[in-house]
Amino acid sequence: MNLYDPHDDALDHVQPNKPHADALRKLRAGLANDPHGMMRWWEGDYPCKMPWRGIRCEGGNGVTHIIMSNRGLSGHIDPAIGLIETLQVLDLGNNFIFHEIPGEAIANLTRLETLNLHNNKIRGKIPPELGNSTSLVHIGLSRNLLAGPIPKELGKIQTLVSLDLAMNFLNGTIPAELGDLIYLAELNLGKNRLRGAIPPELIPEDRVSKLVTLRMSSNMLEGTVPTWWGSQLKYLQILDLSRNWLIGDVPPALADIPNLRELWLNHNKFMRGETPAVLTNKGLQVLVR
């Protein structure tokens, strides 16, 4: 991956950045298995010059992007990552990284917007320290081996737009504090071991939600679908509550969701009676009862 034009004269003016270079080499040491040699040439003190593959620097000599997805990397993420204070994107998805997420180190990255660790072998709990972030926009932790509860502290990340925690071993209840994420557009909690009722605070009755996708399938959620879910879900297109333990009737108010395209309700303990006609007449692309 060449993230710089080798013919760009600006490269001649790049300054050394030894702290970032040292932190990246600690990251390399932790990710000891590098079958494609992505980090082989990470030497010297100029991480913003080629041939530092997978590294990108925007607007100076500070590292802003680490992009090494689909590279067969294995090992752990060294906490030294927290010393790269200019980092905006950390993308290590689709590898074989294990151990735990260095939450405190990542929370110290005050410019980090994207944390993608999707499809690895990461164990342990989701660190509550992530809730101290003031900049995260996208968190992707799906398809790992994470266990334990979803930290309520995640509800403090007021910049968050997407949160994908699907296909782990998370348990406990859905924190009501996730309803404080007023800019959240994508929430995927599917295929975990979550229990309890859907918290009413998740989508308050008196506030328009920015959610576009809400997936909570294949858990052990109980109780009923909130009866007020309707017009305040102004932007919602996909709602997946399938494969839970929900009971009760299908709320007719779901037909008031103006942009709903897919509604998945199958494989629950519920639902009594017929699907409301207002839903069957809505012309949804997918309606699975």
Automatic annotation (TrEMBL):
Annotated family: Belongs to the polygalacturonase-inhibiting protein family.
Stored InterPro entries: Leu-rich_rpt, LRR_dom_sf, LRR_N_plant-typ, PGIP
Keywords: Leucine-rich repeat, Membrane, Repeat, Signal
Leucine-rich repeat-containing N-terminal plant-type domain residues: 21-57
UniProt signal peptide: none
Subcellular location: Cell envelope; Cytoplasm, Cytoskeleton, Cilium axoneme; Membrane
Keyword Iron set for record: no
Protein name per Swiss-Prot or TrEMBL: Leucine-rich repeat-containing N-terminal plant-type domain-containing protein
Entry's Gene Ontology cellular component terms: axoneme; membrane
